[in-house]
Amino acid sequence: MGKVTFLNPEFLWLFLVLPLAMAWLFYKRNQLSATLKMSSLEPFKQNRTFLAKVKPFLNILRLIALSSIIIALARPRSVDVTSKSKTTKGIDIVMAIDVSSSMLANDLKPNRLQALKKVATTFIQDRINDRIGLVVYAGESYTRTPVTSDKAIILQSLKTVEYDDSIIADGTGIGVGLATAINRIKDSKAKSRIIILLTDGVNNSGTIDPRTAAEIAKEYGIKVYTIGIGTNGKAMFPVAKDANGKLVFRMMPVEIDEKLMQEIAKKTDAKYFRATSNQKLQAIYNEINKLETTEIDEKKFYNYDEKYKIFVLIAFGLLGIEILLRNTVFRGIV
Questions:
Q1: Less CB within 10 Å around the terminal CB: N or C of the chain?
Q2: Is 257 helix (H, G, I), strand (E, B) or coil?
Q3: 264 Cβ partners below 8 Å, 6+ apart?
Q4: Per-residue pLDDT tens digits for 14-57
């Protein structure tokens, strides 16, 4: 059953008049009743009939009838709302993730890469109507997942993203990472296309200049949101491997080419962000989520079921009963 509403709720104020109507009925009843001073009323009390006792009940019927008329005037009705929506402007997104060894620095907890994966998972889950792809890069780059609307595939692919120098050469090739992301999205027919490029270092690898890649993105009308991840000052970085192949960490200064990141974002009409903590990283993805919204065309259908008729029937029914009883059973009874 739908929600009950009133088309003319102002008529409900008439309920304030009911106490006055009740007082008027009792006043008229007393006016119509003759009075006679007697030393004792006992003889009359014994002769008072049952009908005389219940006759005031007719006034209650009239008040209920008036209440029903007021409710009918207010036009009660239930409404069922159904909606039908469709995506009118979808967005294609490629997330370009830095997987160099420096992403294992633990200034974000438990480390930068794991913090990013957690936040990116929530971001992907929130983009219900969009297609998303994954590109990973270090000294080189490759497409992890093509742009797809299958969120389960994207999330599983993101879950297994790790630093592995046996698969991809170490280093920070921002240009090649951006170029690969552009290649995955440039032919998209989506109304809006964006790249979220994340790095924690300075471009020191690859054969493509990041600024050149940014120019290409601009030519294709692709926005590139850039994120620099890492605290200010120093952090524990992996600097080598010991005899057992385990990474050795050492306190090192955090270096991020923020000027380059700002240039790329500005050139493509996007924004640059700096994530110095887990909370800041989450806030950045939340802001991007709000900046890039998918337009939804929603149509609502309202089905009204008028309820006033039942109250009209109740009112006339009760008034009819009152008039009938007053002129038959209770006729002549005071």
A1: N
A2: coil
A3: 178, 197, 210, 211, 213, 214, 217, 224, 226, 272
A4: 888 888 877 776 776 665 554 555 555 555 454 456 666 667 67
